[in-house]
Specification:
By secondary structure, the chain is an alpha/beta fold. A hairpin with a 5-residue loop joins strand 3 and strand 4. The chain is globular. Strands 1, 5, 6, 7, 8, 9, 10, 11 and 12 form a nine-stranded mixed beta sheet that branches. Strands 2-4-3 form a three-stranded antiparallel beta sheet, with no helix packed on it.
Amino acid sequence: MSAQNGKKERKLVVVQLSGGNDYLNCVVPYDDPRYVDNRPNVRITEDRVLPLDGKYGLNPGMQPVKELYDTGKVAVIHGVGYPEPNRSHFRSMDIWHTAEPRHVADEGWLGNAVRQMHPEGDNVVAAVNFGGGLPRALVAKGAPVASVTDLETYGLMGHLGADAERSEVLELFKYIYSMGLGSGPTMDLMSQTGLDALRGSDMLSQCTLTYKSDVEYDPNFFAKSMKSAAQVLQADIGTRICYTQHGSFDAHTNGIALQEKLLRDVSGGIYDFYSDMKEHNQSEDILILAFSEFGRRVKDNGNGTDHGSGGVAFLIGDGVAGGQYGEYPSMDDKDLVEGDLAFNLDFRSLYTEIMDDWLEVDSREVMDRDYEKVGFLAA
């Protein structure tokens, strides 16, 4: 969808790597002897690394992302985290969702962005989540968000076989919801939510009908979600934010095989999505953010790795100034934080740049202060 003055609206696709993606085995410091010393059992050997330079390389499951990196489409953000890291999956992910490490916040950073884009709440598909549940990142008062498990079968009352029967039931629901408007705050909210769900269902259910692509996505859940994102964005129905997740990366055991398989799924899905959008001349307007709630411990536990802190994020797209940003945290014992890599880049710097310079909303409505931007967006 085009914005005013003929300027295309930029879109954001967020990929959540749930469970704590192992930074050290994702972007591998293969030239550092401390990596070998700390990972006698759970490490990527140098012959399997996909080199980015003479020091660091990607996990062997990330060949598709490596190809995008080689063409300048990937920014690798080293050492992302936040002060006083929390090693609970739930709390740490909540911190990333709300951009608030000090206390439990009410709103998600992307929900706030949606409300800024549509303060009247008139775009019911401004943000679409692909998967079960609704990530806290998308939650904010007055910000409608659609959540889709399977776009191919999405729609209210889909269990009704006859189209005429389904249409009749949906019209009845629409009438009931409409009658509740003006009856008070509670009924207004319930009625508007119901009407929004009906509108969103109608719009999203049409996205697969006109979709055509030569790209063959891999047969896994994550790739299916990325294909759904491509279908929705190419349908031009006003969606600005797509959200999906993959995992769990919680590799306390069988760490090498588990992470490599998951990263292969993610990398392939991202590559196919990018190729799909490129085929339809829409890749210039897409930015992909991939993140995890924390990294893993520097020392392996014999067969896997335990919860850590400092991690890595990726920004991918035509609008990215490709390369590596920030410093890889030191593995010297004196620099570790309770056995973990110390973060050296606050993740809210990424959010600030994405909100201000990509989505063109005000990051100060979310952040507790100004954060220096990283500069990963191309000029």
